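Tutorial, part two.
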Amino acid sequence: MLSTILHSNCLGFLLLLTLTSCQAQTLSNCRPTPPISPNVKPGVGGLSLSRDGKTLVVAGGDAKIRFVDMSTGAVQRTLTGHTNAIYTAVFSPDEKLLASSSRDRTARIWDLSAGRELQKLNGFRCSVKAVAFSPNSQLLAASGNDGMLKLWDAKSGKELRSLVHINSAVIDMSVYSLAFGRDGNKIYAANGDGTISEWDAVSGKETRTWKAHDQTTLKLLFSPDYSLLASFGDAVVKLWDTSTWREVRSISMVRAPATFNISSALAFSHDGKLIAASNIGLDQKQTSYVYVQTLVWNVMTGEKLFTIEGHKFDIDGLMFTRDDHFLMTGSVDTTIKFWDMKTGQEARTFTMPTNEKTN
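Running the prediction step on this input gives:
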């Protein structure tokens, strides 16, 4: 564990924890999740933006979900219920529901209009890393460090399926990220063994699997038109043609010599022309940061457009504004920064408050 992060009360929200605390686990044996620090700061995890671009949902390292006004940076409301750091909080496509995943080993479904928890989804033995709604908002998929990918009926909270890619005592079997295909019939999962799995949502069968990264596949994301699937792992972004599933481009992050690299966040612009990825580099002892960076590339050419630096700790939230004029980076250092996509320069910063009302 990084001493600097311990000092800053940014416990357990980092991908470093993911890669160490649940490495080489089996379904029947998973280390207990350490409790949240009583004075933990509101580090920023996943970011989700409403369709109208006016509200930003922030998954918090302090177990809170914040709704932030995009024009002012003010927190409009805060949801509580999780008991440990939250990795993701995402809107359903119809924006009636919100789903979240947490280190407390649960996924949860929230009613957006009422601002209350509807379902607490259990059954995981480790942290729940990711959640995703089907395109019709009827299904919720969640996955975690214990290797399980579960499907629920989003309305009733009934568990429909529990899927396992691999059960191994010597291989990282975590499922770090997932995404539904365009029609919702297929689910794609980023696996700890470096593969991508394609699952049939109806039959529960693993219909395709391929090696994507040398060690670990950490993030998956479809382009807005679903023509590409982006995967991120081992400090490399790969683009896959969804009509053939062939790799069409491989883009490497900038690496410093003799550093330990951890991939964290991935984002497409809404017009599909840009892709951004964030990672960190640690020294060989893994006790201090060498760099915290976000890179932005042209999707068609692979040309690097910007190298963005300015955060102190891991960037776990990454998203373009609806007009694609800005890239937002959310960090464990409690800030969300806006970067101008014409210049690559910082335009403004939101800082998450430590005290606010909850509802």
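The domain at 3-351 is CATH 2.130.10.10 (Methylamine Dehydrogenase; Chain H). In part three we will examine how such features are distributed along the chain.
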